[in-house]
Amino acid sequence: MKYTVEEVMQYVEEEDVKFIRLAFCDIFGRQKNVSIMPGELKRAFEQGIAFDASAIRGFGRYTRSDLFLYPDPDTLSVLPWRPEKGRVVRMYCTIAQTSFVPTPECEPFECCTRTLLRRAAETAAKEGAELLFGSRAEFYLYGADEDGRRTNVPFDNAGYMDIAPLDRGEDVRRQIALTLERMGICAESSCHIEGSGQNAVKLVRTGMPRAADDLMSFFTVIKTAASANGLCAELSPKPIADMHGSGLSIEMSAGKDTEKLRHAAAGIAAHLPEITLFLDPTRASYERLRGLNKRAMRFDNTGGSATLCTPDCTANPYLVYALLIYAALDGIKNGTEYNDTVKLPESFEEAAENAKKSGFIRELLPELITEIYCTER
Questions:
Q1: Cis peptide before 80 (omega within 30 of 0)
Q2: Of 4, 44, 176, 202, which sits most exposed with the smallest number of CB within 10 A?
Q3: What is the pTM (predicted TM-score) of this model?
Q4: Fold of 5-111
């Protein structure tokens, strides 16, 4: 459901909302939030809510003053795991450098990756590209010790698409899917996959920036559902060296135009060597990629969608989708033909070097973001 500012104000008043979480993420995609009371909501929409940028990873190096959060009313969602009485809701935010209502003419904070994605989506719309994206997140469920910390004991010893009682994760996956549904997010399917305690849940395809907002919420729901069951969810690409890695498959469609989809997928494949740093931003990412036993890109039998298999859940969804949109548009514009022999970087260092040399990256991302990704761990 889409909301206006006025409708959000009315909802908060009528539905016993006591806390409003203003959510955003650092440049690496780690979600942050500040909770405000209902009396501060009008000020949030009109003037923004200040926060200390120096305390946020990747922000503090380049700003000496506060930044401001402006909630997007269209992203209003109840957090179902919080109490019904005195509800908690959440909205995702744009980050700006000054305290005023953002307009198309104003310059937001350059490291606001949600803004980068919105610009990419606007570019795609102007060029008539009907690109929709969905995601399939893979994660492990492990036992937790008495302090709630993760152990190295998988929740089960099931394998690919096994069922209960071998698969002990089906109730957690069910809880994830139902929680997402209550938040207005549609899960398409779920199953146990190759590793012991390893699961996957797939979201339906949608537009931008919603697909990225939904993915951010998805990560939170996975961890929250695991914790509610006395478990720990691990979304890292290679939590244990001799276990299967976990990825984040991205599915893309381009309306009913299969030729446009083919060129879009070809554009993404062609740019993979230079954008992989942002799809796979940790050293563990390359341990998984070296053991990846599937093609980088997979096409369904009907020709209606293409799936990129290389990203993992440590990536920033906003950066991932922004780069994929631009790469897809480049492929469509140039009529690029798909080449399945693309060579992925074999190490973090190689991926960083590719990104630094890339004219494509220089044109699309602030130099500050690339520098931080290449130097910070």
A1: no
A2: 4
A3: 0.95
A4: Ubiquitin-like (UB roll) (3.10.20)
